[in-house]
């Protein structure tokens, strides 16, 4: 399919005059064809009006129809073949194997949400029958289910051009919930976005969806995104990106005459704890595996282990030697955009220039103009406690190791950390007592606690939480990966004493089509 640079407004291709913008090859910074249209304010209004018109039709479709739509999206993405991966490679600089895997994850997410809709558990159907003769007052008949919020704006993320972009997890979960989606495409991969949008539109046509169910809006600056977030027809926002961008959108959404939720995934350094017995048993293996996780995807993962905490001693020295050796052999890697590369370099320079921080090791010299060179840094727990600002995320292949004098000092460091997506414990049986001290603190701090693994590589399953307290996300009560992500785009409605004929099928007596709780007892569909 040849790229045209079109926008997709209510499932229709639209070209706009004007300078537009071009994609940039991540490896060289050179512009690549074609020119992409920039949406006008009117385009935003047309897309949001079409989404609002589509909403009651789409939301009322039988769950099976929406499941078929999601499955058709997965098929159409796969049908794009090599072209999709090849374009994404040029635009993002990510390697073929990574993007092939990401395409599988993207299609898999769509299919997982199709299954979720069919299961119907997400409706949380509850029935409390009336007790007309209850004293001193009759009890009414109450029935509850979740309903979709309305049109959702999704901001495509730069670092996962497939799995967190046009047809990524936010889009899949919003469409599954019954919400039309307007994607604000990321200017780092507009060609990839156009290909995926064409697949969604084909799937929508094939399965008879209303036109306004999907739009893709482009605009390299902030104005298009701001217009979408402030548009009265938009009822929720999904975002993955910088803390500055996410917070700006949270403020815009909160200042609307009718505020809306923004589910922004922003910044996290994903602390890793090296507990003493685990260090004693396998310091060298841990050091090597740590660097593999730090440098994965040029470190451009929100799950990157950017902070390590451990207690000083000879085993920690063994870990540091192994990690330093691994980092010194780590090749530089192309970063996603020249801007992200520049931000990485200034983050590394900030760490390198801090008097309390020592550079432990750096990776091999950069081979290209936008290649990120890995780096490891260290500081003492006492210095960290004096200036915890050093835990700020540096997006790329770098990490800071905090050497604590003892467990008390380590706990003081933990108390200063901001909300995180993940925390990882490397532990053996002899570390369980320390782990038991840490676990309640970590439950308050993060969305996912791992043992003896690395946080990069998020599994897309029912039990996954990819979220966490602010500032890792805007709202720590939710996840953006896994089937629970659907909850972000739903709200509960209770029906009191409604005649049976007016009730949704899932709430009628005798129906067994979804799992539900009836008079306090769970029933299985
Ligand atoms: N933690 C993560 O997962 C993660 C992922 C990607 C980027 N980042 C961070 O973000 C930096 C920049 O990368 P990026 O371009 O992907 O993220 P970004 O936050 O700058 O942009 C993401 C999207 O949000 C839009 N946007 C940003 N600020 C906005 C505003 N004030 N108003 C309206 N729209 C706005 C952008 O146009 C883009 O579409 C990176 O250097 C890195 O530090 C973090
Ligand atoms: O960058 C954010 C998502 C990280 C992720 O999904 C992964 O580590 O697999």
From TrEMBL:
InterPro entries: Ald_DH/histidinol_DH, Ald_DH_C, Ald_DH_N, Aldehyde_DH_dom, Aldehyde_DH_Superfamily, ALDH_KGSADH. The keyword Oxidoreductase applies. It is an enzyme of class 1 (oxidoreductase). It holds the Pfam family Aldedh. Residues 23-458 form the Aldehyde dehydrogenase domain. The keyword Oxidoreductase applies. Gene3D superfamilies: Aldehyde Dehydrogenase, Chain A, domain 1, Aldehyde Dehydrogenase, Chain A, domain 2. Keywords: Oxidoreductase. It catalyses: 2,5-dioxopentanoate + NADP(+) + H2O = 2-oxoglutarate + NADPH + 2 H(+); 2,5-dioxopentanoate + NAD(+) + H2O = 2-oxoglutarate + NADH + 2 H(+). Its EC number is 1.2.1.26. It comes from the Bacteria. GO terms for molecular function: 2,5-dioxovalerate dehydrogenase (NADP+) activity. Belongs to the aldehyde dehydrogenase family. This is 2,5-dioxovalerate dehydrogenase.
